[in-house]
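Minutes, structural biology subgroup

Action item carried over from last meeting: produce the structure token record for Aminotransferase (Thermohalobaculum xanthum). EB confirmed the sequence was re-checked against the source entry. Recorded below for completeness.
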Amino acid sequence: NPETPTAISPETVQKWDNRHFFHPWDTVGGEDADRMIAVEGEGIYLIDPDGRRFIDGPGGMWNVQIGYGRTEMAEAIGSQAMKLAYHSPWAFASEPSALLARRLAAMAPGDLKTVFFATGGSSAVDTALRFAQFYNNLRGLPEKKRFLAREKGYHGSTYLAASVTAKERDGNLLDTEKRLVHFLPNINPYLRPEGMSVEDWCDAKVADLEAAISVYGADTIAAYISEPIMASGGVIVPPPDYHRRTREICRENDILYISDEVVTAFGRLGHWFASEEVFGIVPDIITCAKGLTSGYLPLGATLISDRLMAEICDAGGEDAVFKNGYTYSGHPVCCAAALKNIEIIEREGLLEHVRELTPHFQARLNELRRHPIVGDTRGMGLVGCVEGHPAPGMSERERLAIDQEFGNRVDAKCEAMGLIVRPLINMCVFSPPLIITRPQIDRMFDILDKAIGQVEAEMM
Ligand code: PMP
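Output recorded by EB:
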């Protein structure tokens, strides 16, 4: 095909990909993986080598807020690359990173006005955790190092970020820093015992945090890390008031509260950041990435409270040197992409757009519960999850193969109808580009509804 932009055939792409690209979160040596090839992106669509268009249900990996194919993003990136592609972040300042830091500080809640630039979500989280340790070392509290995290949480794939991650089945053969971390039990209200109210469930989950603090002692705990809604653990929305209460407990116990907004920031829940505007809390530290550049380039950030920065200066004076950094911290081209992305979100009113579309999106999602094979649906803003229960009553272990079959079958049927979903065992998650329209949402859920109906007929 003379119009194909690459000289090699799709079959060759797959062959070389199978052979040489060690894909993230995958088995070693997937010689017959034959992944679908993405050639182009346009708006909410991904386009394959045959020109077939697919709605990108997961929006890349929860990150493609403004959609694909934006000329002005390419121009902003190109012109910054021509002007100044790189400078040492240690030795120099430059306009893109200074402007972006100021912009993020202005959007952030409370006094989170200090911005550390990382290369993505994992390194932003890693920085936050290392900062908590650094902070306590400087304060002369070397024992105060433990992290509290939660079952089903996902915070990244660097060593420390992976150590506070607790998706069972992840990381079985990888080492993590187990001595440093305690995981609080799953907060998913769907799991509450029959007859228990959501309020009582919330009390129990808050009590789990209090119990962990009394077991270990606040003087051994540096920080608590929490996703506002737990994304890749299966879109777990906490019971109302959970975040506010846990935030207070952390404050009372001198435990830093890290809000991992890698998924929830930049409009996914209809606001720049969800912590304050959706959940009413001001954390000590916020981590973000993904939607910061809408996936056009990699970038992450760790936003730190001025109170902590002041304490550090008081405690450490000239010695308060945080020896944590990346060659690409504050990369000028990535920062230019983020600034343009933020400008587009603002100019096109995408935060308001998400808030307007949310009731419809969530209503369409919840309609899927009419299928007996669907155990639960849950979501917030433009993010949702449908959880299939093809084999109720089986033990978790027995269910795994069947559950996986559910996810994979729904995925295959949706793909045949032009929708990408992201199967997570027995769940499919959605976080489409924020530019999605109401008719496109309807199209997405119509396809899903049909696919689930077909899978139900096959499996139940
Ligand atoms: N935190 C959360 C909440 C995430 O969802 C992710 C990625 N899915 C990360 C951190 C890690 O981000 P990255 O993959 O950019 O390193």
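Discussion: The radius of gyration is 22 Å.
Next step: EB to file the record with the rest of the batch.
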